[in-house]
Amino acid sequence: RIAIAPSQLQQGQILLTKEQQHYLVRVLRLRDGDRFIAMDGKGKWWLSQLATEQAQVLQPLTVETELHVSITLMVALPKGNAFDEVVRTCTELGVACIAPVLSDRTLLNPSPQKLERWRRIAAEAAEQSERAFVPTILEPVAFNTALSTVNSHQSSVNSQQYICEGRGNFPHLRYCLQNKGQESIVIATGPEGGWTETEIENAIAAGFQPVSLGRRILRAVTAPVVALTLISANFEV
Ligand code: SAM
Question: Is 172 in the pocket of ligand 1 (CB under 6 A)?
Answer without folding.
Answer: no
